[in-house]
Amino acid sequence: MKRTLTTLLLTVLFAGFSASTALAQGKIGFVKLRSLFDGYYKTKLADAKIKERAGELDKDMEDLTNRYKALEQEQKDAAQGAEDLAASKEERDRRRAVAEAKLIDMKQLEAEIVKYRRQAEVTLREQQTRMRSRVLDEIQAEIDAQAKAGGYFLIINKDAEDRNETKLIMFHSGENDLTESVLGRLNAGAPATLEAVSEPKP
């Protein structure tokens, strides 16, 4: 047991020594990831695509809602007609049957609307997650490239916060901040207008 504790202590001390050596030999850099994400032109392009898709889904939802309102009015008219004593019994029965059929159609369309709304939310959420992941991967790749080229052994996200939304980096002198450099490289291929670029297929 004593030998095990001694071995563990030596391991910890060696790890601390290795970390100190790395700190002495390498450089630490910083980036503001939120600024990179918001400033990257592909983020703006992704946001435009999501808004476009949301608009299409809203239009489909509006069409479904209008169909429901039309059915609702038809059902109401048929139900009122079934109570019209001026009409023959056969005609009242026919109108009553129409009203019942319209009511069934309304129930089915109502279920369809609820299903469509849920699916639309899932579709937008998945598209947003996919685009966010793609953008972050490209940002990470550029950070990696500049870190290796500049001899940095560690790059820290200055925007990082803990679970209490408290800044992890309480002070930074501003030195070795690669944000502008990384963002400049990322936006080097930006089109004159975002509309000129189409979203790459997943």
Explain what this protein looks like in three dimensions.
- This protein has 202 residues and is mainly α.
- The chain has one domain (24-196).
- It contains 5 helices and 2 strands.
- Strands 1-2 form a two-stranded parallel sheet.
- Helix 2 packs parallel to helix 5 (179-186), helix 3 packs antiparallel against helix 4 (89-150) and helix 4 crosses helix 5 (179-186).
- The protein is rod-shaped, with a radius of gyration of 31 Å.
- Mean pLDDT is 83; it is low at 1-24 and 196-202.
Write the layout of secondary structure elements.
Layout: H1 2-25, E1 27-31, H2 33-39, H3 41-81, H4 89-150, E2 152-157, H5 179-186
Parallel strand pairs: 1-2
Helix pairs in contact: 2-5, 3-4, 4-5
Quick overview of this protein structure:
By secondary structure, the chain is mainly alpha-helical. The chain has one domain.
Q: What best-fitting shape do the alpha-carbon axes yield?
A: rod-shaped
Distance between the first and last residues' Cα: 55 Å
Q: Uncertain runs with pLDDT below 50, 5 residues or more?
A: 1-24, 196-202
Q: Strand fraction band?
A: 5-15%
Oligomer: single chain
The major sheet is characterized as: 2 strands, parallel
> What is the number of E strands?
2
Strand order in space, largest sheet: 1-2
Number of domains: 1
Give me the strand/helix succession. HEHHHEH
User: In angstroms, what is the radius of gyration?
Assistant: 31 Å
Structural class: mainly alpha
Report mean pLDDT, rounded to a whole number. Answer: 83
Q: How many H/I helical runs? A: 5
- Please estimate the helix content: over 70%
